[in-house]
Structure formats: C-alpha cells, structure tokens
Amino acid sequence: MSEQQHPRPTTPGAPGVPTAPPGTTVPSPPPGLPVSPLPPLPPLPLPRRGADWMFGGVYGTVLASGLLAALDQKGGEYTPFYDASWVLVTAATAGLAHGYSHHMSTHRAGSAGHRWRILGRALWNEWPMIAATLPTVLLLLVAGLAGWDSHGVTAVGLGVNTALLFAWGAFVALRVGYKITSALLIGVADATIGLAIIVANAVIK
User: Fold this and answer.
1) With contact defined as beta carbons under 8 Å apart, do 103 and 119 qualify?
2) CA–CA separation, 183 vs 60, rounded Å?
3) N or C: which end of the chain has fewer CB within 10 A?
C-alpha cells in the first residue's frame, strides 16, 4: 500500500507549500548575494618626471622658437612686448589644450569631484611646456626695454633655444639612466630641431 503524502502545515491565510516527489533532491536556495564594496578611486596622475620633462621642455622650446621666428616680420613694426605676451599666451593655451585632450582621451571612474581633481593635475603637469618658453619671453622683454634690433634678438633667441634643446635632451637622458655619451647624442638630436628652425627662418625670409 502506497504511503500517502500529507501537505505541510501552513499558517492561516498562507498558500500551501508543495512538496517534492519521493526520491528527488530539492536544491537549497542560493545564499544571499554579498554587497560588493565600491571600487577604489583611481589615483591622481603623478607629477611629470624624467622623460615627461623632456617632452614638455622640447615642445615648449620648439614652440617658442617658431613663434619668435614668425613674429619677426621683415619691414614690419617691431613690438617685442606684444610678441612676448603672445609667446606666453600661446604656450599656456597649448599646455591647457594638451592636458585637457589627454584627460578626455582616457576614461577614469569616480565621482565628479575626483575627475575634476584628475583634470587639474593633468593641466598642472603641463608646466614644463610653459616654463620652456620663459627664456624667449624674458629676452623679448629685455629687448623692448633696451631697444635692441629685432633681427639680432631673433638670432640670439633662436641660438639660445637651440642650446636649450641640447640641454633638455642631455639632462633628461642622464636623469633616466643613459650614459654620458648617449645623453650627449640625444642632446645633439634635440638641438637639430632648433637648427632646422634657424635654417627655415633664413630660407623663408
């Protein structure tokens, strides 16, 4: 005689709970899902070091040389203070644009405030580009105060910037671990960019 199945007792008003047939295994309910903690905020970008300095320094020096050569127009009015302000404004704008575009090209999780802090650090890291234009700016300011000839100022400025390109390359190469011979060769390679600007300025004008 088959054994009769009795339903489980239920509380008043609650639906009956069906039972599984004999010989079957009822899977246990899955445990409660743990609440995953929020992912940690990504770290802020580190200040520029080593080769990053060379990038900003070389770019800023080349930018200053190009502007110095372009602003010196043959037969035009010489305005060294105006030229100095444009070199500085252009360098600052280029640095902000580069830092902003670099920030926007990478997605970083986190709150809006944290992303603003990351953007601020990315913009601040562009300071070598602006600092590299200061020798040209100071030269133009002194030229305006002393009344120096525009062609002489341009020649001196391009020569100083070429020497600075050599210094940027050699100094940073030594900082990142190159031997002195390799560092000097890197400096010469950077200085070649300045020489190319000098040659282009002479040919075009």
Assistant:
1) yes
2) 20
3) N
Instruction: Write the single-letter amino acid at 138.
Output: L
The average confidence (pLDDT) of the chain is 78
The answer to whether the CB of 70 falls within 8 A of the CB of 201 is no
- Which of 18-32, 111-125, 145-159 tops mean pLDDT? 145-159
Q: Are the beta carbons of 17 and 8 closer than 8 angstroms? A: yes
Pair of tokens at residue 110: 């986190």
> In the numeric block, which tokens belong to residue 119?
């953007």
pTM, rounded to two decimals:
0.68
Rounded (5°) CA angle 87-205-59: 35
Which secondary-structure segment (H or E) carries 194? helix 180-204
- For the chain, first and last CA: distance in Å? 115
Please give the angle made by the CA atoms of 114, 118 and 124, to the nearest 5 degrees. Answer: 140
pLDDT of 204: 85
Q: Tokens 């020649």, residue?
A: 155
Q: Reduced to 3 states, what is the DSSP secondary structure of residue 201?
A: helix
Picking from 10-14, 77-81, 150-154, which range would have the lowest pLDDT averaged per residue? 10-14
Residues present in the chain in total: 205
Looking up tokens 């133009």 gives 140
